[in-house]
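Input C-alpha cells:
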C-alpha cells in the first residue's frame, strides 16, 4: 500500500507537468506488461539452456555419424561458444544503439535457423560453421533480454529480476534433458536439433508481436519516439497523456567499449569479466564434458543425460531463483565469493563422486546450485546494475563476452588435458577447480576497489 501511494504521487501528473519516467518505473508496482516482458525474455533464456543440453548428449552420436574421435569434441563445443562470445560483444553494443527488442528478435532468428541446420551437418567443417553461427545468435540474445527485463524492473529489485529471468536457463536444461532423452528413445539424433530449431522460430514471432521495446532505452536514446506514449499508457496508466515525459538517466555516455572504463569503471569491469569467465566457463565445462565422463565410466547416454541435465538443471534452477534474494540480503560480495569458494570444492570432487550414482547426483546438484545457479545469475544481476541505461546492454554484453570466452577456453583446456594424459580421469576436475577459486578472488577484488573509490550512480558492492 505504501508503495502504491508513492507511485501515485510520482506518476500522476497535471497537464504540462514534467514526469520523470525512470523514477516512476522504479516505484511502480508489478503490472501485466512487466510480467509479459519477463515471460518473453525468460522464454529465450530457456531455449539457451535447452541447446546446452542438446549438444552435450548428442555429441557422441554426431561423432559416430561423421566418423570423428573424441579429440574433435573440443573444437565442436568451442565453435558455438566462440560464436556466442562474438555475439554477446556485438549484439550487446548494437542493442544500445538500435534497441533491445530488434536485436533480440534477430538473435533469436539466427540461433533458431542454425539449430535446425545442425541436423544436416555432413562434415566436421560444416558442423563447426553451423555451431559458430548458432552460438552467435545465442550469445547475442542474452545481453538483450537481460537489459530489457532489468529496465522494466524497479531499481531496488533489479538484481532480483535479472536473477529470476536467468532461472529460465536451468529450466531449459531440465526441459532439454527430459525432451532429449525421450527423442533419443524414439528417433535419431537429428530430431533433437530439428525440434530445437522450430521452437526459437515460434518464440521469434511471439517477440515481434508482444514484446515492447525498453521504455528506459527509448527515453534515453529516442526521446521523440511515438512508442513511448503507447508503452507508458500500458505500464504507467496514471500518468497524464499531456504530461511531459523525461528520464533522469539521460547520459552522454554512448554504447562503446570506451564507456566501460569511464568514471573509474575500468578496474571494476576487469574484475567482473574475470568472474564471468570463471562462472560461465565452469558451467559449460560441467554440462559439456560430464555426460561424456559418465559414459566413459559405464553410464548409458540417456542415464548420463538425465544425471547431468536434470541434476545440474534442478540445482541451477534453485540457485538462480535464490541468487537475487541472497544478494539483496547478504550483499553481492558475501554471496558470490562464498559461492565461488564452495564451487571450488564441488568441482574438485566431481571426478571422485562418479564412482557411485548417488554421490554423483548430489555433487552435480550442488555444482548446479553454485555455478550454473547462484554464480551465473548473480554475475548477470551484478552487471545489469553496474552500468547506466545508455550503456547497460553494452556492459552486460561485454561481460557476457568474457563469460563466453571462459566457455571457449575451459572445454578446450579439458580436451588438452585429456590429450596429454591419454584419458579422461579425475585429475581433470582437480585442475579446472582453480577457475572458481579465481572467481572468488575477483569478487573480493571488486569489493576492495569499490571501497577505495565509489562514483555516484555506479554499483555499490555491498556485503
Amino acid at each position: 500500500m505504501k508503495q502504491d501511494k508513492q507511485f501515485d504521487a510520482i506518476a500522476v501528473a497535471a497537464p504540462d507537468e514534467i514526469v520523470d519516467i525512470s523514477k516512476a518505473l522504479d516505484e511502480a508496482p508489478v503490472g501485466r506488461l512487466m510480467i509479459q516482458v519477463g515471460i518473453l525474455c525468460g522464454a529465450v533464456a530457456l531455449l539457451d539452456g535447452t541447446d546446452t543440453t542438446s549438444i552435450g548428449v548428442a555429441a557422441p552420436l554426431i561423432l559416430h555419424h561423421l566418423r570423428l574421435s573424441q579429440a574433435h569434441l573440443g573444437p565442436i563445443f568451442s565453435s558455438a561458444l566462440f560464436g556466442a562470445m562474438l555475439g554477446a560483444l556485438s549484439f550487446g553494443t548494437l542493442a544500445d544503439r538500435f534497441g533491445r527488442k530488434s536485436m533480440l528478435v534477430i538473435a533469436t532468428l539466427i540461433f533458431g535457423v542454425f539449430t535446425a541446420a545442425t541436423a544436416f551437418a555432413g562434415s566436421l567443417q560444416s558442423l563447426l560453421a553451423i555451431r559458430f553461427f548458432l552460438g552467435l545468435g545465442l550469445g547475442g540474445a542474452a545481453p538483450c533480454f537481460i537489459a530489457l527485463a532489468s529496465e522494466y524492473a524497479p531499481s531496488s529489485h533489479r538484481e532480483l529480476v535479472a536473477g529470476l529471468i536467468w532461472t529460465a536457463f536451468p529450466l531449459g536444461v531440465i526441459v532439454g534433458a527430459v525432451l532429449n532423452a525421450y527423442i533419443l528413445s524414439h528417433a535419431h539424433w537429428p530430431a533433437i536439433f530439428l525440434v530445437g530449431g522450430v521452437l526459437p522460430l515460434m518464440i521469434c514471432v511471439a517477440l515481434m508481436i508482444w514484446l515492447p521495446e525498453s521504455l528506459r532505452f527509448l527515453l534515453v536514446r529516442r526521446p521523440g519516439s511515438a512508442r513511448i506514449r503507447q508503452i507508458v499508457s500500458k505500464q504507467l496508466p496514471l500518468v497524464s497523456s499531456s504530461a511531459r515525459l523525461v528520464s533522469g538517466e539521460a547520459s552522454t555516455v554512448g554504447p562503446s567499449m570506451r564507456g566501460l572504463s569511464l568514471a573509474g569503471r575500468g578496474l571494476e569491469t576487469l574484475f567482473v569479466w574475470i568472474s564471468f569467465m570463471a562462472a560461465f566457463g565452469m558451467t559449460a565445462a560441467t554440462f559439456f564434458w560430464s555426460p561424456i565422463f559418465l559414459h566413459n565410466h559405464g553410464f548409458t547416454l540417456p542415464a548420463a543425460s538425465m544425471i547431468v541435465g536434470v541434476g545440474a538443471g534442478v540445482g541451477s534452477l534453485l540457485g538462480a531463483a535464490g541468487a537475487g534474494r541472497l544478494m539483496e540480503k547478504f550483499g553481492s560480495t558475501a554471496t558470490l565469493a562464498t559461492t565461488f569458494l564452495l564451487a571450488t570444492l564441488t568441482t574438485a570432487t566431481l571426478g571422485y563422486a562418479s564412482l557411485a550414482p548417488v554421490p554423483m547426483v548430489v555433487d552435480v546438484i550442488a555444482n548446479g546450485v553454485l555455478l550454473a545457479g547462484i554464480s551465473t545469475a548473480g554475475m548477470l544481476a551484478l552487471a545489469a546494475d553496474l552500468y547506466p541505461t545508455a550503456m547497460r546492454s553494452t556492459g552486460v554484453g561485454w561481460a557476457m563476452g568474457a563469460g563466453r570466452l571462459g566457455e571457449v577456453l575451459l572445454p578446450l583446456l579439458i580436451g588438452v588435458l585429456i590429450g596429454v594424459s591419454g584419458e579422461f580421469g579425475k585429475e581433470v576436475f582437480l585442475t579446472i577447480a582453480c577457475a572458481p577459486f579465481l572467481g572468488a578472488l575477483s569478487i573480493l577484488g571488486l569489493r576492495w576497489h569499490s571501497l577505495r573509490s565509489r562514483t555516484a550512480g555506479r554499483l555499490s558492492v555491498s556485503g
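The chain has one domain: 9-452. Confidence is low (pLDDT under 50) at residues 1-15, 455-462.
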